[in-house]
Amino acid sequence: MLNRTALLMISAALVAAAPMVITISSRQALAETKAIASMSYRERQKACSTEWQQLKSAGKSADLRWPKFWSDCNARMKAKSA
């Protein structure tokens, strides 16, 4: 059988490890949330890129540049998904 001192040391070690487990779980949740957010960002970027290519091939992008188009398209897509 374990003596009282050994039990106290094991208990203290378990209590000290508990915050680390919570921190790891929180970090995993944050990483998953970021992955979901970046996935939707990529989807918006791909959709806007497709629109941009269609405008260019139709010859309607003469006075429009990609940064401005991307900004407008991204805002429009965000509003649509909200």
- Counting DSSP E segments of at least 2 residues, the number of strands comes to 0
Shape: rod-shaped
State the distance separating the first and last CA atoms. 61 Å
Portion of residues in helices? over 70%
Described by strand count, sense and barrel closure, the largest sheet is:
none
Order of helices and strands: HH
Total helices: the number is: 2
CA gyration radius, whole angstroms: 26 Å
Report what the structure shows:
By secondary structure, the chain is an all-alpha fold. It has one domain. It contains 2 helices and no strands. The longest helix is centred in the middle third of the chain and has 55 residues. The termini are far apart. The mean pLDDT is 77.
Provide the fold topology.
Elements: H1 4-58, H2 66-81
Helix pairs in contact: 1-2
Q: Main attributes?
A:
single chain, mainly alpha, 2 helices
In brief, what are we looking at here?
This protein has helices at residues 4-58, 66-81. It is an all-alpha fold and 82 residues long.
